[in-house]
Protein 1
Amino acid sequence: MPYISRDPNGQITAIFRDASPEANQFIPQNAPELLSFIGAPANTELFHSLDSDLIRVIEDVIDALIHKKLLLLTDLPAEAQTKILARRNLRQNLPQSSSILAPRDGLIWGE
């Protein structure tokens, strides 16, 4: 997936899951012309970068809630606990500036 059909000018006219006589050209899912045809942002790297930034924000919010004892790590499903702990261990090796809620002089923002 996906297979496409084109008009006489070479423009994509339809997308199909399977090859067929009218759609026998396979195209990568991240091809710019396919993304444009379906109305997706052409710059998917920017989108993934924003996703990555949002994940970091969510991690910092979870850490702040745990620090303030508003949330216990054990309140979360086991899979979520495992993923949070794995990312926390990886992030400990990053500079403090990688956290938007990084401690300042031993304090969390807002305390």
Protein 2
Amino acid sequence: MRLKTGLLGLCLLAGTAGAADLYKWKDANGVTHYSESPPAGQKFEARRIDSRGGVGLAQEETGAAKESPQCTQARQNLKALSDSRPVMQDTDGDGKPDAKLDESQREAQRNLADAGVKAYCPQAGG
């Protein structure tokens, strides 16, 4: 049974692992570029390409690039740590939160989350 569950998980991962975003834009000289990451502050087209060669609908976007998953996670962490509700953590490695952060731990984690936002999130006007 465990083997079947593991194989099913691998199949699900394999189906999504081949999907990627592709970005297309033109620079100031009119040269077309393609990349796996969007250009900062420029107009671009985004396409989703799956492992079977299928292409999703193109979207035109202007301005700042999409927020990275690291940026999104850092912002969520900072919001949770800035809230007054208790924050729990897993101290024994079983995947279940079992200890409440005290105020000094919370402040240390808030500083890390703030550093993550500064490192991963595009700055407005920059």
Protein 3
Amino acid sequence: MNAIELNAVSYQHKEFKLNDVSFRVPQGFVTGFIGANGVGKTTIIRLIMNLIEPNNGQILLFNKSMSHHAVELKNKIGFIYSELYLNDKWTVKKIESYIAPFYSHWDDTRFDFFLEKFDLPKDKKIKSFSTGMKMKLSIAIAFSHHAELFILDEPTSGLDPIVRNEVLDVIQEELIDENKSVFISTHIISDLEKIADYLVYIKDGEVILNQFLDDILNQFQIVKGDPKQLDNELIDLTHYIEYNHTGFTALTTHANVFKELFGSEVAITNPTIEELMVYLEKGKIKNKHSNDEMI
């Protein structure tokens, strides 16, 4: 079963547009959702959460529509946003009394466990909390009603590296359960290197990748070598190529061709998620003989 499924979803607001977006988020895995700023990641999350409605298409969570099963589905979702949209004059205790009734499986004991784990005081007002403390409170709330799907929109944005690692460790520790699913949107790609199993990559309103991470990273390779080795046919086998004083660097799914032709004269490595995203975002071939760029 898929935890999330989008089928030909379209949405437009002023100049912003999503056209026929389709992808799957498998149940029981951590799925990273990546793309450049402004590409529509947060909009898609709002569509998934039924905070805005698509112009066309279908969105399913656990094979059900949010518009017809909102109460049931929202009970199954732990939502963590980059900012805490709660009254900052409230204490944690008041926040719990306000939020708990919305969830049929709210667990006071579990909430108290996370407050203690994160050293969050129950009687202090939210306005006195640091950014990291607010994020930890969001996690405590999301993890305290026995959700099955966790949707995280930039959960580590604005956090220092120590708090970021602590947050990721907690996510990883708490969600080692094959029945739990995570959909995490982030521009901090190194976070995904640590926890992601699956990847959805969107570019220019179109889903480019929707696969298990290991399959993606084994499919693409980075090839480095001497530009004199290249001809137009080899360049056509690359998704992106750039040149510098030491040679060329190319992203390709045909590294075997380069290996057969040049053997040890080329270096072939698997890309990191960050390298893959950077090269696919650029998506251009630089002409080594001029400053022109060719698509």
Protein 4
Amino acid sequence: MEITKKDILSVPKSELHCHLDGSVRINTIIDIAREYKIDLPSYEANDLEKNLICGRKVLDLVEYLDAFRMTLSVMQEKESLERVAFELAEDAALENLWYLEVRFSPILHSNKGLSYEEIVESVLRGFEKAQQKYKIKVGLIICAMRQKSVDEALVMADLCIKYRDKGVVAFDLAGPEAGNPAKKYRKAFAVVRKNLINRTIHAGEAFGAKSIFQAIELGAQRIGHGITLLEDEKLSKYINDHRIALEVCLKCNTQTGIPLEKHPLPEFIKQGLCVTLNTDNRLMSATTLTDEYLLAIETYSLNWNDVKQLTLNSFSSAFLPFSEKQVMLSELQKFWEEKAPDVLGD
């Protein structure tokens, strides 16, 4: 049975790996740039898209990340941060996401003197407005950056503690893996672990399975990307046995060097790993979560049972309070039970 875009839009979805500064609307970038007199290569949407990659294959992860300088330039004011946060949550809600986790690093939004607290609170206000308007729950993940200092990572860890139970759900380590091993930031992870903060780490995106192993050593409960995992059979088995979720971002991975035909996603699914689908950067990759599902379905001939399992994996791996997660999973199960006679078979 063919699975259409309309079908996937109807499915309740959850996304666990989405960057705020990589998911800004083009017209919003232009509006903010004009308001604050920020230079852009172009103020025409079609031309600006070419400078922000938007689906173009790049040489490597470093080049891909270079496009963020432009979006960050328009995300240095409280009002701008609030607007971008609201619009991202709105976009997600309109494609039937019930839950969304968004990650960002306040370090990157302080160029005009905003305090880290002002930055976090601005983003949380945007999410709260979206949650009041739509059926969506949004959690914020604060990132330390691999290319920044250990001291800055410790400050980000303290921010997680300060805003836990106020909208912040986890701590992350992002940025270029090569030359920036996760173990360098062990002090920051010791702090968040001591304070029982959830942890996800970018690993195995542009570096080998050793990077994923370090993430596990630091106590990662989920792995951002993890596409090099199959290089290490023992590690793969450990991650599978402990149901450590893999936050796969299919389109982004193909842009940064992994051809679709060589992507490990179908093997992850075959082995029963707790794999989830995500957008990573909706703008830079010109994608939505619906698009990610459709790309996986069309490329790897996934069926409705695969789609069901991917949605269950995502909700099950969310950094949500257990009681809230159970409610969402119960509603999701009801959706699939109602759909089962038509698409899932006996």
